[in-house]
Amino acid sequence: MDRLAEGLAPEHGRLLAATLDEGLAGWLLVRREQHRLEAHCGVVNHVQTQVHLRRRGVGAALLRHVADVAREEMGLERLKLSVRAGLGLEDFYRAAGWCEVGRWPGALRLAPGDDRDEILMGLAL
Predict the structure, then answer these.
(1) Residue 95 is inside which H or E element, if any?
(2) Contacts of 52-55 spanning 24+ positions with Cβ under 8 A
(3) What is the rounded CA–CA span in Å between residue 36 and residue 112?
(4) Which of 55, 5, 3, 52 lies closest to 24, judged by CA?
(5) Residues 27, 48: Cα–Cα separation, whole Å
C-alpha cells in the first residue's frame, strides 16, 4: 500500500477507503490516464473489501463514491477497469452501472491449465 500511495496526487490519483465501526472495510485506487489522448479517463484498480464484510454494500458504496470523486474532483468523464472472468465480478460491476466493453480471452493464467478471460469494463460519468 505504501508503494501505491507514493504515486498519488489529488489531480492524478486517489486512494479511497471505506470504514465501518471505525475499522477499514474496503478500499480502491483511481488514477487518471497519463497519455494526453486519454486524460479524460481514469482507471480503477484494487477494489477490495474485508472478506467478512462482503455482501454488505461496502464495495457498491466505494463504486458510487469513486464515480463522484472522479467526476467532481478530478474532472474525469469515463472510468475503466478490468476483472477476472470466472468469479461473477462482472455481474457485481454491471449492477453498479458499469458495462462490459471487451474481453481478452485467456489473458490471465492463474495456474497451468487455468486461463481466464480478462473482462474490460467501462463507466461513463
Answers:
(1) helix 89-95
(2) 53/20, 53/25, 53/26
(3) 38
(4) 52
(5) 6
Give the tens place of pLDDT for each residue, 51-74: 888 888 999 999 999 999 999 999
Please give the single-letter amino acid code of residue 93.
Answer: Y
Residue 6 pLDDT exceeds 80: no
pLDDT at position 68 is: 97
Strands 78-84 and 41-49: parallel
Rounded distance, CA 62 to CA 81, Å? Answer: 14
Residue that has been written with the C-alpha cell 455481474 in this structure: 91
Q: Are 74 and 122 in contact (CB under 8 A)?
A: no
Residue 7 has pLDDT above 80, yes or no: no
User: Backbone dihedral region of 70: left (phi > 0), alpha (psi from -120 to 50 degrees) or beta?
Assistant: alpha
> Which run of H or of E encompasses 54?
none
The rounded mean pLDDT for the chain is 92
User: Under 8 Å CB-to-CB from 117, ≥6 apart: which residues?
Assistant: 84, 85, 86, 103, 104, 105, 106, 107, 108
